[in-house]
Amino acid sequence: MHADANSFYASCESLFRPDLRGRPVIVLTNNDSIIISLNAQAKADGFKRGDKFKDIKELCGIRNAAVFSSNYTLYADISRRIVSIYVCLAPEVEIYSIDECFLFFPDLHKNACLEIARTIRHEIRRQTGITVSIGIAPTKTLAKFCNAQAKHAGGIFHYQDKNLDDLLEQTPAGDIWGIGWNRVHTLASYGVRNALQLKQFPPAKAKQKFTLGGYNTVMELNGIRSIEKNERTQKQNICCSRQFGKKIYDIASIEEALCEYTAIAVRRMREQKSEAKGISVYIATGHSDPNRFFDSRYRDLERPTSFLPAIQTAALGLLRNIYQDGYGFLKVMVNLHNLQPCRMQAELFDDIQALEKQEQLMHCMEKLAGRYGNGTLTLGISAKKAEWETRREYLSPCYTTRMSDLPVLR
Amino acid sequence: METGFPSPAQGYEEQSIDLPRYLIPHPACTFLMRVGTDGLESSGLCKNDIVIIDRSIQPYHGALTVIETDSGFLCGVFLPEQVKTDNGHSDSARRPAQKTADSPPRAVVCVSNRTRIPVTDETPLFGVITRIIRSTI
Predict the structure, then answer these.
(1) Are the Cβ atoms of A400 and B75 closer than 8 angstroms?
(2) In chain B, which residue's Cα lies nearest the Cα of A128?
(3) Closest to B28 (Cβ–Cβ): which among A81, A406, A410?
(4) Helix (H, G, I), strand (E, B), or coil: what is residue A187?
(5) Whole-angstrom distance, CA of residue A403 vs CA of residue A392
(6) Could you tell me if B121 lies within 8 Å of chain A, comparing CB atoms?
(7) Closest alpha carbon within chain B to A17
């Protein structure tokens, strides 16, 4: 089964704003520049996903739309709750994204499947207030396709419901999960334009002519499981980057931002118990800036490490090498490379005491961060974030994760 | 390593009380709210109290509940409506509040202003208040 929440971000915002019932709700992303999620009323009023905010600002006023910036903290918490309910109702759950999951069941009769799907929908709605739709099929690709049909069919769609082939015929091949826009042309050259033609493509020929991904998709459309369950793999590479809210012309602000992003990346790396062997830093102005500039540099770290001060020092060194005056920078990215599991034993020339002290310091910082929040302790450079932080002007409170942000009861 | 006398408590130890688990047995469907008005004192809620709301609990007659309205979240006492049985006697007090296809309409009586608000798709119940947390300092 494939389960996903309808208009997830917009739905999360509406959960704690009963006063917005009946009004269009839109959620912006990427520095408050484009619509990422919108409720049914907003869709009816003519808003669309991907609309640029500056283009629809006037329409927002006319339609009395409620506008929100993406509140990832809130969405992540609601998503966690939903997943914990799936875990109670399905033997195996694979999280695909913040609002989509694959649920695996043993082969069941159609009526049993529908009953389970109805229960899942009912429980998620009752316990969290979020509506999910569910597609039921023997393969992931078909289940995702069925879910898309479910949105027009009362929320649940089983692959044996209507004539599946008719529906596949009406669907462009590029709409199928796993077929990117760059493959659409390749497929068209073989005469494959809709999903039914893709399904009926001879498997032997698909194996020969398409990539492995394309071949798997053909098999899955025919009900043969080919896409493996996502085994948890350790990341080889961790990157952290953000777009600034406005152009930054001084190196000091970029250094602050770089330190923060490095801290975030190192935290994620330590969560998977890895250390990095290399680091790179990338800075850039906007794409459309007439005075365009971008550069990046990589270096190996003296020793594989997850010690934040050492990594931040390396990052700042790289920045100073590539920074140039006179440009309005919009983006900085730090990348930790060649991650390997933390070594249990020290090597021949390591200073064991120093290493242990470093580890203690990291533990202490992590504990404080756990209790008081991630921004509590920063190294060296003061936190003067207003200049460069990503613009989120319409952010809602973190209703479920901060005592100071609780909804009010009257 | 054993030294001296064995502990007389051996075999009787228990885990310390897990207060969060006691207060919130169903984390996935539990939400917190803060009481923002003095007007709920008749139901035992003082301003700035924290209420624990469980969405999975079936509301029962007299339950303190939270209802969604266009003025925000309001606190109401749950009342399944009066229903005439065959011999004309109303039966609501003993009837559990089940929502079946042709169940009687449900409503809450708003604590702050005593108005009756029907439970509908436009004004649904958010959940049942299970605990009130009040700070005395």
Answers:
(1) no
(2) B29
(3) A81
(4) helix
(5) 21
(6) no
(7) B72
Compute the nearest-CA separation of A215 from chain B (Å). 40
Q: Is B35 on the interface with A (CB under 8 A)?
A: yes
Please answer whether residues B60 and B96 qualify as being in contact, where contact means their C-beta atoms are separated by less than 8 angstroms. yes
HSE-CB at B67 with a 13 A cutoff on CA atoms is 29
CB B68 within 8 A of CB A22: no
Cα–Cα distance measured from residue B124 to residue B68, given in angstroms and rounded to the nearest whole number: 6
Phi/psi of residue A333, each to 5°? -135, 140
Q: Determine whether the interchain pair B126/A129 forms a contact, defined as Cβ–Cβ distance below 8 Å.
A: yes
Strands A66-69 and A274-285: unpaired
- B31-57 per-position pLDDT tens digit: 999 999 999 999 999 999 999 999 999
Residues A22, A25, A27: CA angle, nearest 5 degrees: 170
Among candidates A18, A129, A406 on the partner chain, residue whose Cβ is nearest the Cβ of B70 = A18
User: Does A347 score more than 90 pLDDT?
Assistant: no
- Are A125 and A103 within 8 A, CB to CB? no
Interface of B with A in 3-32 (CB under 8 A): 26-29, 31-32
CA atoms within 13 A on the CB side of A228: 5
Q: State the Cα–Cα distance between residues A361 and A380, nearest whole angstrom.
A: 15
Nearest Cβ partner for B33 among A19, A81, A408: A408
pLDDT in tens, chain B (137 residues): 556 777 888 888 888 888 988 999 889 999 999 999 999 999 999 999 999 999 999 999 999 999 999 999 999 999 976 544 444 444 444 444 444 445 667 888 898 889 999 999 889 999 999 999 999 98
Across the range A59-71, mean pLDDT stands at 92
User: In Å, what is the CA distance from A267 to each residue of A240, A264, A297, A355, B125?
Assistant: 11, 5, 22, 18, 40
Helices marked H in A151-301 — which ranges? 164-169, 181-189, 195-200, 203-209, 212-221, 251-271
Nearest to A261 by CA among A244, A241, A282: A241
Q: Which of A52-66, A294-308, A348-362, A370-384 tops mean pLDDT?
A: A52-66
Could you report the per-residue pLDDT of A129-173, keeping only the tens digit for each? 999 999 999 999 999 999 999 988 889 999 888 888 888 888 888
Report the residue of chain B nearest A409, measured CA to CA: B35
pLDDT in tens, A256-290: 889 889 988 998 888 888 889 888 888 888 877 78
Interchain pair B27, A408: CB under 8 A: no
What is the helix (H) or strand (E) element at residue B116, kind and residue range?
A: strand B116-118
Cα gap A211→A219, rounded to integer Å: 13
The widest CA-to-CA distance across chain B, in whole angstroms, is 77
Residue of B71, B73, B74, B119 for testing the chain A interface, max A β-carbons within 10 Å: B73
